[in-house]
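Help needed: design a sequence for this.
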């Protein structure tokens, strides 16, 4: 996986307003957007990780835990972000292409 390309694409998706941020908002949105992609910071708390992993598995979402919260926060231009959900099908297709290469 090319981390730099994935992070750049997360930033692009955020600027295009195709992302959902925050634990509660993401948990609600996962059920409305099955087969989406969730970026969860590897340094998140165990409770958040457990909740998101269970929701992602239930709704068949792709879960990526390869980035730190500082990397995610910096790429979307916000502070202290640990979880990002991308809902747009075009972005999801490109993410999967980058991640699987």
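Sure. Designed sequence:
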């Amino acid at each position: 996986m090319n981390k730099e390309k994935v992070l750049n694409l997360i930033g692009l998706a955020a600027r295009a307003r195709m992302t959902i941020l925050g634990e509660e908002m993401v948990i609600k949105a996962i059920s409305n957007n099955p087969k989406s992609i969730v970026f969860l910071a590897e340094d998140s708390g165990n409770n958040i990780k457990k909740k998101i992993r269970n929701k992602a598995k239930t709704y068949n979402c792709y879960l990526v835990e390869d980035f730190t919260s500082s990397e995610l926060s910096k790429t979307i231009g916000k502070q202290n972000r640990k979880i990002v959900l991308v809902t747009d099908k075009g972005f999801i297709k490109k993410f999967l292409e980058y991640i699987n290469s």
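The first strand starts at residue 19 and ends at 21.
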